[in-house]
Write a structure and sequence with these properties.
about 300 residues, 15 helices
Length: about 300
C-alpha cells in the first residue's frame, strides 16, 4: 500500500473519483453560488470568461483524449467537458485540478510544466501565461476583487504563505486527538471511504489508521487542499485557512462533475466533527508563542 501511495503522491493526485465522471450528454449543474467556482461578483464572471476563452481551448486540445468528461481513459480525472457551456463547472469541480488556485499550486498548470512532463505534452509560454492569468483572476475573485493588498501581497502569495504556515501547525498528536481516522469509516453509498481512498487514490486520502493519512495531508499541498483551503472572501489582508467543506459537499451531493459518486451527508458526520476538532486544535497551536510546547514549527510541505 505504501508504494501505491507514493506513486499517487508523485502523480500529484490527478486522477478522478470513482464514479465521478459525467455521463455523456448530461448537462453540468453549476454549484449554488451561481458562478461555479466558489466566488461571486464581476471578478468571478471575468475569471470564468478567461477560462472559457483562453484556457478551455488549451485543455480541449491537449487533455481531452484522456480526460474527457464523456468518458475518461484509464479512470483518470474527467475534467475536460466536450461542450464549452459545461467546461468551467467541470474543470473547477476537481480539487485535484485546481489545487490551491495558485500558479505554483494548481496541478492543471504544474502537471505539464514539471521537469518530468506529462504524456509528452508541453505548454508554450503564451499558454502558460493564459493559464496563470486565469488562476490569478480566480484568486482575485475570491479576495473580494482586490488583486493586491496595500502591503503588496497578492492573493496567490497569501495563499502560499498561509498553506505553508498551516502545514507546520498541524501535528500528529492533534490529528489523533481529533479522531481524523473517522474519515476512513465514513460511508458513501454502501462503501466506506477507505475502500477507495486509503492510499491516496483518486486525488483524496481517507483512512481508518493515522499514518500515512496524517503524513500525506501535512506534507502534500494537493491532498491538504481537500481538507483545508484559504478563505480570501474578506480580502487578502484578512485571509485565513478554513475547512474546505465545499470540496466534500460537491462530491457527497453529486454536484457536477461528480454526478456518479456515491452519496454521503457531510452535515453531522463523524468526519466533519473530526475535521472541525482538528481545525480548532491547529488554530490553537497557531496561537501559541513560538518555541512553546505544541506550537507551530516550520513548514512540512514537500511540494
Amino acid at each position: 500500500m505504501r508504494n501505491t501511495l507514493l506513486a499517487v503522491v508523485a502523480a500529484v493526485g490527478l486522477v478522478g473519483c470513482v464514479g465521478g465522471i459525467d455521463m455523456p450528454n448530461t448537462p453540468s449543474t453549476p454549484p449554488p453560488d451561481g458562478v461555479g467556482g466558489g466566488a461571486t461578483g464581476p471578478a468571478a464572471a471575468e475569471a470564468r470568461k478567461l477560462f472559457e476563452d483562453n484556457v478551455y481551448p488549451i485543455v480541449a486540445a491537449k487533455c481531452i483524449g484522456c480526460h474527457s468528461s464523456a468518458g475518461a481513459v484509464g479512470n483518470v480525472t474527467a475534467f475536460v467537458a466536450p461542450a464549452l457551456a459545461d467546461s468551467y463547472v467541470t474543470a473547477v469541480g476537481y480539487q485535484a485540478v485546481v489545487g490551491d488556485w495558485t500558479p505554483t499550486g494548481a496541478p492543471l498548470l504544474l502537471k505539464i510544466t514539471s521537469t518530468v512532463g506529462h504524456q509528452g505534452q508541453s505548454y508554450t509560454q503564451d499558454q502558460k501565461d493564459k493559464i496563470t492569468a486565469w488562476l490569478t483572476k480566480e484568486l482575485e475573485a475570491r479576495s473580494g476583487g482586490t488583486p493586491v493588498t496595500p502591503t503588496g501581497e497578492s492573493p496567490a502569495e497569501a495563499t502560499v504563505r498561509l498553506t505553508k504556515e498551516w502545514s507546520g501547525c498541524m501535528s500528529l498528536a492533534n490529528f489523533q486527538t481529533a479522531n481524523m481516522k473517522a474519515w476512513g469509516n465514513m460511508q458513501a453509498g454502501n462503501s466506506a471511504c477507505k475502500t477507495c481512498h486509503n492510499a491516496g487514490e483518486y486525488g483524496n486520502i481517507a483512512d481508518n489508521v493515522d499514518n500515512p493519512f496524517f503524513t500525506v495531508i501535512s506534507t502534500n499541498k494537493y491532498y491538504m487542499a481537500q481538507y483545508f483551503s484559504v478563505d480570501l472572501s474578506k480580502g487578502v489582508a484578512a485571509a485565513k485557512v478554513m475547512i474546505n467543506t465545499r470540496s466534500f459537499v460537491g462530491v457527497g451531493t453529486a454536484l457536477a462533475p461528480h454526478i456518479e459518486h456515491p452519496r454521503f451527508n457531510l452535515t453531522g458526520s463523524t468526519g466533519l466533527a473530526a475535521l472541525q476538532k482538528f481545525y480548532d486544535l491547529t488554530v490553537a497551536a497557531k496561537a501559541l508563542p513560538a518555541g512553546s510546547p505544541g506550537a507551530c514549527g516550520p513548514s512540512t510541505l514537500m511540494n
